[in-house]
Design a protein that fits this description.
Elements (H helix, E strand, L loop, with lengths): L10 E13 L3 E2 L4 E2 L3 E19 L5 E10 L1
Antiparallel strand pairs: 1-4, 2-3, 4-5
């Protein structure tokens, strides 16, 4: 902790992603044609952030304020 008792600054990041095969079965009976919505693919994202300020309360709880960037 810094000498003034304030919480130390923090930098954080995370990466997330998944592969999905989602759909619903619906068929147009006249033409035997599937019309249900579906999604088959991958998605991913990245988040990074940094604290600008922090406040420590008497009970030990710390509130942090900062900026972050997200790309998905």
């Amino acid at each position: 902790m810094p000498a003034d008792g304030s919480p130390p600054p923090a930098v954080w990041g995370r990466v997330f992603g998944a592969q999905s095969d989602i759909g619903a079965e619906a068929t147009l009976s006249i033409a035997d044609f599937k019309i249900g919505p579906e999604f088959n693919g991958n998605y991913w994202g990245l988040q990074i952030g940094s604290d600008i300020a922090g406040v420590e309360h008497d009970n030990g709880h710390v509130d942090r304020f900062g900026l972050f960037y997200t790309h998905a």
